[in-house]
Each structure stands twice: as structure tokens, then as C-alpha cells.
């Protein structure tokens, strides 16, 4: 589907951009949870998954629906660590068999992993700029204006 990705209603409410006529009543409302790591993750990635899932759940971001996205993140994180170790070991440039000097192929892998991790981090609100887009206003009273709007239609 072309165009912008739709934002979840909860994020629209937090940002203050929710419009009552555009909120879907059918949108799933997942519960914040700290799911266990998937079985396919190796030990270091599983430990990072558990650590990140706990942090994200404390901030109200992690749900059981996010297991796949977080699993992708920790797999890429692990790959990045391995590529960085090779860059550190061999250096950012290497000599080919023919004597030419080229960029270390592991540096390209590390850079690609950094880009992928950045995209996933932004989805979870784990970067300063992605967090800065979320604004939480202090409630002026305990009534929900959206509930008032919905109830007004039933009184007519």
C-alpha cells in the first residue's frame, strides 16, 4: 500500500493528533508484556532480547505482538558485534590477494547492520528523535474528551 504507514491510535492519542472520526474501533489493543525470547535465538541474542523486552515493557512499548521485531533487532545487533570485532581485528581497509587496498567487507556489514538497527530502534521509540515526537500533555481533568464525544451521540 503506497503512502505513509498508519500510526497506531495509542500513539496518535499520545501525540495529540487523534481525530475521533478517524479512530478505528476494530484496531487491536495489545497488552504490554515481557514475552520470552524465541527459541531460535542463540544465547547472547536471547539475553539481549530479555534485557530489551524488559526495558521496552517498562516504558509501555513491548507487547507479545512485537516479538518478531525485537528478535530481528537482536539478531542484527549480534551480527553487528561480530562484524565490528572483525573490523577491529583486521582494520577498516584490507589488502586483496592481488595487493590492492580495499574497504574491509566486514565494515560494509557493520554499517548495514547499524542502518537496520536504527530503523527498528525508531519503530520502538528507542532513539532521542523518535521519542521527541511523542508529546504527553498533562490532563486538565479526569474526563476523557473522546468518551464525551462518543456519549454525546447516544443522547440525541
From TrEMBL:
Residues 15-35, 129-156 are annotated as: Disordered. InterPro entries: Phage_term_ssu_P27 (IPR006448). This is Phage terminase small subunit P27 family. Residues 135-150 have a biased composition (Basic and acidic residues). Pfam families: Terminase_4.
Amino acid at each position: 500500500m503506497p503512502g505513509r504507514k498508519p500510526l497506531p491510535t495509542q500513539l496518535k492519542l499520545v501525540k495529540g493528533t487523534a481525530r475521533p472520526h478517524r479512530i478505528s474501533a476494530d484496531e487491536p489493543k495489545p497488552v504490554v508484556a515481557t514475552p520470552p525470547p524465541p527459541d531460535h535465538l542463540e544465547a547472547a541474542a536471547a539475553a539481549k532480547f530479555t534485557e530489551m523486552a524488559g526495558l521496552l515493557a517498562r516504558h509501555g512499548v513491548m507487547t507479545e505482538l512485537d516479538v518478531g521485531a525485537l528478535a530481528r533487532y537482536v539478531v542484527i545487533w549480534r551480527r553487528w558485534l561480530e562484524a565490528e570485532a572483525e573490523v577491529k581485528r583486521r582494520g577498516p581497509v584490507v589488502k586483496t590477494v592481488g595487493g590492492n587496498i580495499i574497504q574491509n567487507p566486514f565494515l560494509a556489514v557493520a554499517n548495514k547492520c547499524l542502518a537496520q538497527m536504527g530503523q527498528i530502534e525508531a519503530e520502538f521509540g528507542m532513539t532521542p528523535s523518535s521519542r521527541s515526537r511523542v508529546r504527553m500533555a498533562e490532563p486538565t481533568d479526569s474526563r476523557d474528551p473522546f468518551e464525551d464525544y462518543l456519549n454525546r451521540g447516544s443522547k440525541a
